[in-house]
Q: What sequence folds into this?
């Protein structure tokens, strides 16, 4: 089964967040999908972590490399449709990309983002 994952979920797994093991178990054996922008969001997440903990730059870089190498099918999403979804929901275009992909594939969206969680299953 295909599951859409966002950067918060992949980041929790690869950067050792408390929710990581539960998410990893939930996603095991699934086909993972994400908008192509996930790589940039993961890099930005790593940058934020380095700014908070500069002494961990090497460990964070290794975790980022692991995240970027995960088997996640990166899928292009249509700008006009994502824009309309973002405008209609109040999400950022980035978050709307994940929601659009999940809805277009009738797939579960795995996220730690509260705004996205509230909108899963809520057709626009």
A:
């Amino acid at each position: 089964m295909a599951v859409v994952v966002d950067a918060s979920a992949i980041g929790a797994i690869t950067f050792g967040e408390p929710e990581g093991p539960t998410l990893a178990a939930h996603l095991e054996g699934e086909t993972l999908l994400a908008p192509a922008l996930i790589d940039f969001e993961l890099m930005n997440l790593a940058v934020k972590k380095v700014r908070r903990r500069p002494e961990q730059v090497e460990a964070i870089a290794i975790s980022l490399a692991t995240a970027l190498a995960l088997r996640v099918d990166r899928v292009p999403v249509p700008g006009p449709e994502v824009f309309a979804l973002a405008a209609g929901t109040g999400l950022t275009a980035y978050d709307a990309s994940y929601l659009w992909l999940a809805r277009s594939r009738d797939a579960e969206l795995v996220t730690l983002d509260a705004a996205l969680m509230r909108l899963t299953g809520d057709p626009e």
Summary: The beta strands are 2-5, 31-35, 72-75, 108-110. The radius of gyration is 14 Å.
